[in-house]
């Protein structure tokens, strides 16, 4: 198989495409022929050496999320067949032509979704849905989403609106019309964000989700959001300083399936910025730079 790998920690340029042995599924596992793979900040942190997954065995693969077609069944697998289109999570192995995963973690891909969109939903759907549940977001809430135009923010805005909440989202001005289309009230992040939120809010902000860092928790506290309803997925240090929540929504094929079903019905959308697998380094650089809209996805040619 071909896979994006790195031989030392560092910038996007350390990535290369390598030929590796095809992985073989064990009992209860399936091998997926990958068609698309998401790129996320966790991949960046591992590649840079900030998060280390076990012994430093190089070359090191990357990638947490995939969509593709079942290619091979391990012993004892039922309910799946070769050729089934699927999506799901993996651990530092998704940006490749093949990946082996537990059959129980696989989610069926609806025909209404193409492979890039399916891959784009995997991590964002599980993170956003889990975070909103932990924070108890529902009808009558006013939710502030920091970094609302990113992949997690995109899903969080739409799920919160479906739950009956009013949503205010921070983003660069270039993404404000995009947030309006999602149903959020946009404000610019950075200096003056507290005043900007107060200007558009029609009452108190009752809950906040931080997918940005960079002072988002401090701003949420200043706005008077109850500390037990401020959750971050990126800034553990600020959460400890201010006594707010770190939301670590675990992986859940069931929750992923729920969001995928909404997307298949056209109720929820996710913009995709696509790069070929051969340009994995460029895709990582884009994610590392931030400020993008939707999800960066690698396309793995059949």
UniProtKB/TrEMBL annotation:
<dbReference type="InterPro" id="IPR036291">
    <property type="entry name" value="NAD(P)-bd_dom_sf"/>
</dbReference>
<dbReference type="InterPro" id="IPR011032">
    <property type="entry name" value="GroES-like_sf"/>
</dbReference>
<dbReference type="GO" id="GO:0005829">
    <property type="term" value="C:cytosol"/>
</dbReference>
<dbReference type="InterPro" id="IPR013154">
    <property type="entry name" value="ADH-like_N"/>
</dbReference>
<dbReference type="Pfam" id="PF13602">
    <property type="entry name" value="ADH_zinc_N_2"/>
</dbReference>
<dbReference type="InterPro" id="IPR020843">
    <property type="entry name" value="ER"/>
</dbReference>
<keyword id="KW-0521">NADP</keyword>
<dbReference type="GO" id="GO:0070402">
    <property type="term" value="F:NADPH binding"/>
</dbReference>
<protein>
    <submittedName>
        <fullName>Enoyl reductase</fullName>
    </submittedName>
</protein>
<dbReference type="GO" id="GO:0035925">
    <property type="term" value="F:mRNA 3'-UTR AU-rich region binding"/>
</dbReference>
<dbReference type="GO" id="GO:0003960">
    <property type="term" value="F:quinone reductase (NADPH) activity"/>
</dbReference>
<dbReference type="Pfam" id="PF08240">
    <property type="entry name" value="ADH_N"/>
</dbReference>
<keyword id="KW-0560">Oxidoreductase</keyword>
<feature type="domain" description="Enoyl reductase (ER)">
    <location>
        <begin position="10"/>
        <end position="298"/>
    </location>
</feature>
